[in-house]
Amino acid sequence: MKLVGSYTSPFVRKISVLLLEKGMAFDFVNDSPWNENSHVAQSNPLGKVPVLIADDGACWFDSPVIASFLELTQPVPASIPSDPYAALQVRQLEALADGVMDAAILSFREQQRPAAHQLESELVRQREKILRGLDALDEAAKNGAFNTQQLDVATIAVGCAMGYLNFRRIAPGWCVDRPHLVKLVEQLFQRDSFARTEPRVA
């Protein structure tokens, strides 16, 4: 099994953490779709990562679909509840964390543009999405929605979203007045799966 992606993508990290938590062996193929010589589009016509290439050669994308495939392949330890309603709740929290990642990536890309061409309105829009998302995640953490003993896909996604915010210095004051989210992230970052997948520029 091969995981195609970049060391800086929070969505790739999400799948890397999930694979490590499930104890599934995989080879990591460092291939950023932003590079001119990238081969990502050969596996995913959208040219996005992560892409999981299964042992039978099947290509799976995007991260929620890959997570579902891994759950079917290796159901223990479970990362998605077997109860349909509970699974739906977890997937919604995953979508919320994924949305924070999306907004953070868009913010970073906008900031990479020449200063004269950056759209302040776009940066504000993405920042507001991030902050609203973090408020909702903090409330979910307060209500005990996340389990740091056996990680589900939502909990993993939250950790990866916060890791990306720290790595790219997006919304640097995110931890202020969000104590439940801070506590959750501190616990997650102590796990081996998160330590081994800390984002870096290759």
Automatic annotation (TrEMBL):
Domain GST C-terminal: 83-202
Record bears the keyword Transmembrane helix: no
Gene Ontology BP, a term: L-phenylalanine catabolic process
Coiled-coil region: none
The protein's name in its UniProt record: Glutathione S-transferase
Keywords: Transferase
Domain GST N-terminal: 1-78
Pfam family membership, one: GST_C
Entry's Gene Ontology molecular function annotations: glutathione transferase activity; maleylacetoacetate isomerase activity
InterPro entries attached to this UniProt entry: Glutathione-S-Trfase_C-like, Glutathione-S-Trfase_C_sf, Glutathione_S-Trfase_N, GST_C, Thioredoxin-like_sf
CDD domains, sorted: GST_C_6 (cd03205)
